[in-house]
Amino acid sequence: MKISILGSGLMGGKLGTIFAQAGHEVVFSYAKTKGKLERLAKEAGAKAKAGTVAEAAESADALLLAVHWSRVDDVLKQAGNLSGKVILTCSLPMDADNSGLVLGLTTSGAEELAKKVPKAKVVGAFNTIPSEVLFGVFEAKSRSSMPSLVYCGDDLGAKRTAAGLIRDVGFEPFDLGGLKAARYTEPFALMVAEIAYGGAKGPEMAYQFEWF
Ligand SMILES: NC(=O)c1ccc[n+]([C@@H]2O[C@H](COP(=O)([O-])OP(=O)(O)OC[C@H]3O[C@@H](n4cnc5c(N)ncnc54)[C@H](OP(=O)(O)O)[C@@H]3O)[C@@H](O)[C@H]2O)c1
Q: Is 153 a pocket residue for ligand 1 (Cβ < 6 Å)?
């Protein structure tokens, strides 16, 4: 699959690298310097390359939006027409200093994104996990018990794509239903961040749901 990364920082850089190592064609885009994108592509291997946001958007079967909330409009403007595209968003609607959500309860970042690109197929995914654990989860993929990753969206085909990519990274996809569920997953992501960055054990952590 052709996957384009819009925002090649902690999340986009790592997930793009993993997608490339899992066999997908990856374009890294949107960093402050072209050199950063080229370095990421080189390190991710032969399946990866660097590009502009417009190039990345045009060629993609699926896009990962991984920018700070304040950069979303800029990325979408550079991307151009995203009609029909699958957009996985891990972007959380955080304030400028990343201390809290700027919206919630009656809407979510994922739903507001979907309003901005009504003809795209938005899935909320990869937002409830710290970037620090991604390579570890990928390396442990063959283990029998995989950590969970919640995702949600309104388009079933886009969700199937998301579930496949979630499995490629090494998580067990946990379907939370429609995009409206992002009202719960986004605050949940902040809870995970509290455990990851506020706890004693560090951020290389994931979660799993169990029934007894
Ligand atoms: N980090 C996590 O563990 C985590 C977990 C869950 C959800 N999230 C969410 O995921 C999203 C991405 O987080 P992140 O930690 O990956 O952020 P990040 O490391 O800051 O990455 C953001 C990317 O945007 C680029 N960028 C920023 N300003 C730009 C500009 N003016 N022009 C061009 N490129 C620009 C950065 O470029 P440079 O690379 O050159 O700096 C970087 O590649 C956020 O919405 C965050 O809330 C993050």
A: no
